[in-house]
Amino acid sequence: MSDLSSLTSSAYSQALEVIASVEPRIAEATRQELADQRASLKLIASENYASPAVLMTMGTWFSDKYAEGTVGHRFYAACQNVDTVESLAAEHARELFGAEYAYVQPHSGIDANLVAYWSILANRVESPALEKLGAKNVSELTEADWESLRAELGNQRLLGMSLDAGGHLTHGFRPNISGKMFHQQQYGTDPETGLLDYDAVRAKAKEFKPLVLVAGYSAYPRRVNFAKMREIADEVGAVLMVDMAHFAGLVAGKVFTGDENPVPHADIVTTTTHKSLRGPRGGMVLATKEFAADVDRGCPMVLGGPLSHVMAAKAVALAEARQPAFQSYAQKVADNAQSLAEGFLKRDARLVTGGTDNHIVLLDVTSFGLTGRQAESALLDAGVVTNRNSIPSDPNGAWYTSGIRFGTPALTTRGFGHDEFDKVAELVVNVLSNTKPGTTKAGGPSKASYELGDGVADNTRAASAEMLDKHPLYPGLELA
Ligand code: PLP
């Protein structure tokens, strides 16, 4: 056991003792969560395992501090240490991504997107209606102004990727606030190939003339050419916003460079910090200088007090991501996704877009005669943790779905490589081939129930255990 892991072991053991002295059930659930994560194949594309240093940074008295405002300009007293933390996190973010400006306060990816949208509106909406009210931008409006403006505001149009093509709720999906604050339209993918069709995006943008063109995705298994998206945005005078929540780690690790790196091309880039970037749960906004002052109004526009303990952990995670080791990690994430995709394809499984070139593999489970819901549940019984996901033109809708989304960031952190991901594909195909759709109580076909063949779950868990034991989660961490 290295010094660091023995320190971590005693720190966590003692922390759990302290927690147990107040609410033992929480201490127990925390222990159990570690045991469960250690014993399962975590393939959820948006999850990872943050380092003990990142996790520990979140468990401090910074959690107790209020610090509304920005560095050096707070609405609360005694924020000198929060200022240090926030400045460091922002500095690491700017250096890591080569951004002009970074805002590290958003509590989550959704918050980061809301901050970005409001800053675009504040920065860009210049309408006669605003002038009439004597306001330069939307942040100067009173409640009564808002009332009269809602009907009158000029261009408040947003064009984003549709949910079933792999976009995110916050990219203009109707039931999300982004689909209400903007007049929204969506672009999809080519029905034949499943790939982004830039000419189709251009045609739609020319017709719709959006204020905001959003690029980025949650479930698209391919890289995006952000230089082309920039061209399209420029042709129609739109602000280009990229949500890199999913692939920020691949940008940080220099796997996505040139046209595939959104930072030099976009006006605003939003991200989460907890997915492929492997930091604490949270969000962040990178922006050009032009948008910096408007992004800084995230609080009070849509945020309250920042989570100082999480900003501190962001600084630690970003410092980790600036190490050379993170670049080799990111490359392995992408290589492993290739191995997983090849493993599926050679076993005749159907993949949306026919493969991957990022960290996501999207399996179409209709070829197994299953819905995404059935496949997700059967896999979970066998210790394979994934999530169901819509596929383009999904015949089973957004609840049952027809896809399973796999991601490689978490198991790559554990040290899985080509052979293990090939084995994962074999196990998944075996589970799904041995799963039959069930019936409803009335005897009709069910989209939820399923029957998993005898012994399949146990055999899969046993085969996984061999790989998981070889690549332990938090090696050397032993709880007393
Ligand atoms: N943006 C994208 C592309 C995402 O995939 C997600 C989450 O899955 C989010 C934003 C929202 O992140 P959060 O769950 O932290 O609010």
What does the secondary structure layout of this molecule look like, with pairings?
Layout: H1 3-20, H2 24-38, E1 41-42, H3 52-58, E2 69-70, E3 73-74, H4 80-97, E4 101-103, H5 109-124, H6 128-132, H7 143-152, E5 157-161, H8 178-181, E6 183-187, H9 198-208, E7 212-216, H10 226-236, E8 239-243, H11 248-252, E9 268-272, E10 283-287, H12 289-295, H13 298-301, H14 308-321, H15 324-345, E11 350-351, E12 360-364, H16 372-381, E13 384-385, E14 387-389, H17 397-400, E15 403-407, H18 409-414, H19 418-433, E16 435-439, E17 445-452, H20 456-470
Pyridoxal-5'-phosphate is lined by residues 46, 108-110, 168, 170, 216, 218, 243, 245-246, 272, 283.
Cofactor: pyridoxal 5'-phosphate
Subcellular location: Cytoplasm
Site (Plays an important role in substrate specificity): 274
Biggest sheet layout: 7 strands, mixed
How many domain regions?
A: 2
Shape: globular
Distance between the termini: 15 Å
Uncertain stretches of 5 or more adjacent residues: none
**What is the mean predicted local confidence, pLDDT?**
94
Sum up the structure in keywords.
480 residues; alpha/beta; 2 domains; four-stranded antiparallel beta sheet; 20 helices; 17 strands; 14% strand; globular; binds pyridoxal-5'-phosphate
How does this model look, in words?
- The protein contains 20 helices and 17 strands.
- The chain has a 7-stranded mixed β-sheet, with helices on both faces. A 4-stranded antiparallel β-sheet has the order 11-12-15-14. The chain has a two-stranded parallel ribbon with strand order 1-13.
- Helix 5 crosses helix 12.
- The longest helix is centred in the last third of the chain and has 22 residues.
- The chain is globular, with a radius of gyration of 23 Å.
- The mean pLDDT is 94.
